[in-house]
Amino acid sequence: MWEFIKLGLLFSAFGCFFEVLFTSIYDSIEAAFKGGRASVDVRFMGYWSILYIFVYGIVLAAFWYLLAVPYVYPLPWYFRMFIYGFVFQIGEYICMWIFHLIFGQSPSESHYHGKFDSINDFTRLTYFPAFVIEAFSFEAVYAAFMCV
User: Fold this and answer.
1) pTM over 0.85
2) What is the pLDDT of residues 56-111, one digit of tens each?
3) Residue 96: which domain range?
4) Count of domains observed in the chain
5) Burial profile 91-129: b = 16 or more Cβ within 10 angstroms, e = fewer
6) ∠ at Cα 72 (70, 75), nearest 5°?
7) Which residues have a Cβ under 8 Å from the Cβ of 121 and sit 6 or more positions away?
8) Is the pLDDT at 37 greater than 80, yes or no?
């Protein structure tokens, strides 16, 4: 149990950091493409929600222990890339849908509303590469802090 709590705390900390980093990078790139360099927010601000601690600390940690380590790790990197991207995409959708049911609005809805790649304002298809990078980063975090 202690190992799961440790992994949950690690994934919460790194997950929330990655969330802010990736959303700030993505929004800056998107703003640059839409309105040119002058429209990019120089503050480079991302976003997150306290609810993401549940997503990273419990859901992702459970996925890691139950599926990723025993079944996904042995696969070549190119298979892991697609599995991680697909699972993270589905995971974000389901978690945001649950938050929507509980709270009336998920944390992502206000940021994803009206975007061309948004699926019900719960996830964005163009986040797939960020999900893959994030998953491989979680592999590194797991290897650095959890493996003996």
Assistant:
1) yes
2) 999 999 999 999 999 999 999 999 999 999 999 999 999 999 999 999 999 989 88
3) 2-145
4) 1
5) bbbebbebbbeeeeebbbbebbeeeeebeebbbbeebbe
6) 115
7) 96, 106, 108, 109, 112, 113
8) no
